Amino acid sequence: MERLTQIVAASDVVLADETPHQMQDKAGTGEAGKGYMWVFIAGNNVVYRFNASRSGETPKDILQGTTGTLVVDAYTGYNAVTGPEGRTRAACMAHVRRKFFNALKSGCQEAQVALDYILAVYHVEHDAKASGITRRPQHIEMRRARSGPIMESFHRWLIANEHSYPPKGTMGNAILHALKNWQALTEFLKSEQIPVDNNLSEASLRIV
Description:
Layout: H1 2-9, E1 13-23, E2 33-42, E3 45-51, H2 57-63, E4 69-71, E5 88-90, H3 93-105, H4 111-130, H5 137-161, H6 170-180, H7 182-185, H8 199-207
Helix pairs in contact: 3-4, 3-6, 4-5, 5-6
């Protein structure tokens, strides 16, 4: 377990996520409560870690003092290991898509425009996989040639519509979330090793 943790921590690209998990004895009180199962993934190496807290304690325990990229959602608990002295944060496109999908379900048809931009990015990833160039130099070339312009157009659309919806509504929240995390959302354009989403981590937590 210690060696596996060392391998993950030493990796350039790490994916992470966490999910609530029931525990019989919360903090030694004798009463049931909620803890968290965390997962950290690098390549084919997967580390699970349980903690009664959702604080940044667990990310620090695994990744403190390491550099590279950390692919996560917007949860602030990962701030403990990202930033100038830590890892570069890469955001999850699937989380952005989920917010716009909820806006569409709530009746905002304009959300389909955002979903189409995101779908176009996933089409590029599909084509890379079909061509057998995933995680190869040709992959980043394809991303920069095709996904780069898509993301630029998406960004312009977000800015143009930023003040068109109440910020606490589903559509306004989706737009603000995307803009707030924009730099992290475009990290995948810098390296073919960085995935566009954190779905692998979520899938690993479903096992739990």
